[in-house]
C-alpha cells in the first residue's frame, strides 16, 4: 500500500516555522525580512506566480516589494532596477520572474544578483557551492523535494536514485542534493538509452521532464519512492504530472500527487530562502 506525500501539509508546517523566524528577525533587527519580485511583461502564468509569491510573503510575515516593467523594457532598464535592489538594505532576496521577454539577456540580468540575495539559487556561486556540498541558497523546487523526503523520514543514504531531466532549475540541482545526501545518482535525459530499465532500478525516482504521464508502471521498481515534479495538462485538459499516477501508485511505497505534491513546496522554499538570506545578512 502506497503512502501519499502531502505537499500541502508539509508546506503549511514549514510556513509556520518560516513565519516564526521572520517575526524573530524583525524583533531582533527592527525591520522586516524583505523580498523583491521583478516581473517584466504580462505573461499570464508569470502574473499568477508573482501573485502567489506576494500572497505567500504576506502570510509568512515577509515584506514584498513588487516591480512591474512593460514587456518592451530595455535591457539597461531591467539591469538598472536589479542593481538598485542589490544595494537596498531592506531587501534580502531578489527574484526575477522567468521567462523574460526574448529580447532580454536573462543570464546577464541574473548575474547581477549577489549570491546572498539569490533566493532562487540560480547564480553560479550558489550552484558551485551546492556541487561542493557547501552551505548555500538552493534552487527552490529540488530543495522542497528534499524537505519532503526528510519530513517523511525517507532514508536516502546508500539508495539508488534516478532523476529524469537535466534542467538547471530542477534536474541538475536535484541530482546534486541527492548525491550530497549519499545516494548513488543517475541522471537520465532525452538521449539516455534503456531509460525504462534504468528507472526501474531506482529506489527513489524523480520525474522532472514536463511530459504528461511519461512514467508508467513498467518504469517503477516495487516499493520505490516516486517524486513527480511535472505540471502538465492531459488530453482532456486536466492537470497532471510526469507520472501516470493511476498505473504507478500500486507499485510504489511513496508518491507525490499532482496537484498537491511538490508544487506547494516551491514557493514555501522561496520564503525559506528569503528568511535564511535575511538571517545571514546580519551575521556577515
- DSSP helix count? 10
Order of helices and strands: EHEHEHEHHHEHEHEEEEHEH
Overall geometry comes to globular
Low-pLDDT residue spans: none
Instruction: Give the biggest beta sheet.
Output: 6 strands, parallel
In round numbers, the mean pLDDT is 96
| Secondary structural class | alpha/beta
Strand composition percent: 15-25%
User: Helix fraction?
Assistant: 40-55%
Number of distinct beta strands:
11
Strand order of the largest sheet: 1-11-8-7-5-6
Supply Rg.
Answer: 19 Å
Q: What's the end-to-end separation, in Å?
A: 49 Å
Write structural notes for this entry.
- By secondary structure, the chain is of the alpha/beta class.
- 40% of the residues lie in helices and 15% in strands.
- It contains ten helices and eleven strands.
- The strands form three sheets. Strands 1-11-8-7-5-6 form a six-stranded parallel sheet. A three-stranded parallel sheet has the order 3-2-4, sandwiched between helices. It has a two-stranded antiparallel ribbon with strand order 9-10.
- Helix 7 links the parallel strand 5 and strand 6.
- Helix 1 runs parallel beside helix 10, helix 2 packs across helix 10 and helix 6 crosses helix 10.
- It is globular and about 50 Å long.
- The N and C termini lie far apart (49 Å).
- The model has no long low-confidence stretch (mean pLDDT 96).
Amino acid at each position: 500500500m502506497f503512502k501519499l506525500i502531502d505537499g500541502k501539509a508539509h508546506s503549511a508546517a514549514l510556513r509556520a516555522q518560516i513565519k516564526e523566524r521572520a517575526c524573530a528577525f524583525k524583533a531582533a533587527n527592527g525591520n522586516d525580512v524583505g523580498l523583491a519580485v521583478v516581473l517584466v511583461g504580462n505573461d499570464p502564468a508569470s502574473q499568477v506566480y508573482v501573485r502567489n509569491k506576494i500572497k505567500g510573503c504576506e502570510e509568512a510575515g515577509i515584506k514584498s516589494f513588487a516591480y512591474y516593467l512593460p514587456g518592451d523594457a530595455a535591457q539597461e532598464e531591467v539591469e538598472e532596477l536589479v542593481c538598485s535592489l542589490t544595494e537596498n538594505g531592506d531587501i534580502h532576496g531578489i527574484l526575477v520572474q522567468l521567462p523574460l521577454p526574448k529580447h532580454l539577456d536573462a543570464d546577464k540580468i541574473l548575474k547581477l544578483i549577489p549570491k546572498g540575495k539569490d533566493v532562487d539559487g540560480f547564480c553560479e556561486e550558489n550552484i558551485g557551492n551546492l556541487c561542493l556540498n557547501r552551505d548555500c541558497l538552493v534552487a527552490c523546487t529540488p530543495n522542497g523535494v528534499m524537505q519532503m523526503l526528510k519530513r517523511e523520514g525517507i532514508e536516502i543514504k546508500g539508495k539508488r536514485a534516478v532523476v529524469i531531466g537535466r534542467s538547471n532549475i530542477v534536474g541538475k540541482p536535484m541530482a546534486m542534493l541527492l548525491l550530497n545526501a549519499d545516494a548513488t545518482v543517475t541522471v537520465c535525459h532525452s538521449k539516455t538509452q534503456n531509460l525504462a530499465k534504468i528507472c526501474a532500478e531506482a529506489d527513489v525516482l524523480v520525474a522532472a521532464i514536463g511530459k504528461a504521464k511519461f512514467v508508467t508502471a513498467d518504469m517503477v521498481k516495487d516499493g520505490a519512492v516516486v517524486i513527480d515534479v511535472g505540471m502538465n495538462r492531459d488530453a482532456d485538459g486536466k492537470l497532471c504530472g510526469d507520472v501516470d499516477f493511476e498505473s504507478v501508485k500500486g507499485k510504489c511505497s511513496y508518491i507525490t500527487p499532482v496537484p498537491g505534491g511538490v508544487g506547494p513546496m516551491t514557493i514555501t522554499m522561496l520564503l525559506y530562502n528569503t528568511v535564511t538570506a535575511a538571517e545571514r545578512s546580519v551575521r556577515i
